[in-house]
Predict the structure.
Amino acid sequence: MACIHCGTAPVLRRDTATARMLMICPECKARGDVALHEARARISWEIVNDDTLPRHGCRNGTYPRFVQASGAWGYGCKACGFAATGYATLEGAVAGWMRESRSSKT
Ligand SMILES: [Zn+2]
Ligand SMILES: [Zn+2]
């Protein structure tokens, strides 16, 4: 599944020291969850690159960009700079985006 943001094919990046891996877009650095198994890495990539995800409700709303920092997941809209964080899991952040994009549509 190509990157939702730029259409580039993702690569599977392995960290040989920790045996963990993730799918990442070599172009814009969109990424899935860090996983111990390739299946999870691929599934999480599909979750964040699902083109049925709602775009942000702002004027030029984009697909969400999911980011993981300091152990928490968050998301943002590149068009307006909106961002939120504090989700323990990627799935939690996706659910948060669903609520956010619904509530910001007027
Ligand atoms: Zn990309
Ligand atoms: Zn926006």
Observations:
- The chain has two domains: 1-52, 55-106.
